[in-house]
């Protein structure tokens, strides 16, 4: 993985010239320094004639470590130029095919195929790419800039306009050398738009959506376009496949996805928790190593597999003992970072600076420290288990939407209609079906077949009473959080949700487009990993696997056992990975990956948030009410109020980001 930063002068707003070259060179060089952690191995940039386009790249050398693979890349005619961040799997076969068609390459790096594919297929080249990636390509012949990300936005790309230049970068902090003055997007913060759509927490800074590309045509027109989307089988179409057939196909595709992600010219490790997802990845790698002689990158075959785990001390949900038993069963080498209260406090602010988004849980700090441990062991690449829950239905709260309707696609279900209705009536509207929703959520739910998943936007939101009074006049007093998700859903997708997809799949779609890319893959993925120059690879998000899983009956994701009267989440995945995991993991219920929420009343966490949440700091934000925030630390730490604790963590993050980025104090614009 790497980091990119690009600047494009827009027609009519900026008239670049050779006299600007020195200033532009300095700005892009400094911009790359801001995100050097993403690629410390080399730095390069290219500036076009008349300084219209500048492409910059920080390299984390993973495939082809030679100088030939340093970026930006250029075609042989010096007309197509590109920077690429990420990994493109199966590139060897693509490269050979392109060579047979007359294309030439200067390196053996996976990223270089992007230019040749574009020259061969035009913008359709994106459908030929598989992996975790972001790229920016400039075609000087057509005066066309193309920026694209992978299908799940595993790799981020942000953009804004400053002084007539369109700026694109892997992280917003890279905009600072170009004169960007950060301002809070208070409406996005209040609506949790940064979690649900293309907004961020910064005014005027947007992100590229999953499976999208952006074009800037003739240095003038900027637009986003979708090139891939999630789709599910018609809920009325009866599936005639056998369970065993589908289990085998899931296993085959997962094996292929893991096998592809073992390609690297550096050693590879595994992030191992106590859950079935990462444990299955570890078990599959051990299987491939033993049966096929697979290498973990350049690690010698005789070496033990390196796994990395977090131990949350004094936590009800600590999964490290399970991970330890798994590592012993597999015979792998496990490295563990023990997260003390002192470590959480010491690394909180640095972690939030890298995240650039908010979260209620300190588990992100644990993952930040885990990545630091991984880097210290000279491991540049890790395989992780993210994305499984969003396709195999791994969250127990999704049960309500699974039983919201019958599943006519699976005629062999043991869940009779009377039982389904009884269980549904006991769950709908209860805490077991997810966070309780405000009355205003009913309007949003009508738009998405009444699924209950919309309440999850509430878990990342601050309540209205914590906001300064002027925000109600500026943005309205109605609770908009539930509709932030639905506003991003296209008309065609709404039709699918209303008539084609089962409610479980509709809920999984919304999760995969919101909390997965903007939350999970950020605060537990790209940002905390790349903060320490560690590349994360996610086999469960290989689109060949996910497209197959989209076509599976809901009843094989949540499976009902009539004998025990229980549901098994991710049933088909458990069956597919059963040969590679312990019996403990095969039968274990999912537990959240969560950090402790109880801390000493006079300990490091209390002192940290007492220092952050002061009148001066809160009023300096401009959009929060000090009188409503002043007791959050006392309630969250001393009184053990879980709601106040989460709000305390969120407010502390806003203060940290405000100070680190020099964000201007928010003020009302219209009132």
TrEMBL record:
Does ATP-binding appear among the keywords? yes
| Ligand binding (ATP) | 310
Q: Name one GO biological process term.
A: asparagine biosynthetic process
Q: Could you tell me the keywords of this UniProt record?
A: Amino-acid biosynthesis, Asparagine biosynthesis, ATP-binding, Glutamine amidotransferase, Nucleotide-binding
| Positions of the catalytic residues | 2
Which residues of this protein are annotated with the site description Important for beta-aspartyl-AMP intermediate formation? 386
**InterPro entries per the record?**
Asn_synth_AEB (IPR006426), Asn_synthase (IPR001962), ASN_synthetase/amidase (IPR051786), AsnB_N (IPR033738), GATase_2_dom (IPR017932), Ntn_hydrolases_N (IPR029055), Rossmann-like_a/b/a_fold (IPR014729)
Residues bound to L-glutamine are: 110
Task: Name the family.
Answer: Belongs to the asparagine synthetase family.
Looking up NCBIfam families in the UniProt record yields: asn_synth_AEB
Protein's recorded name: Glutamine amidotransferase type-2 domain-containing protein
Organism, as annotated = Periconia digitata
Organism lineage reads as: Eukaryota, Fungi, Dikarya, Ascomycota, Pezizomycotina
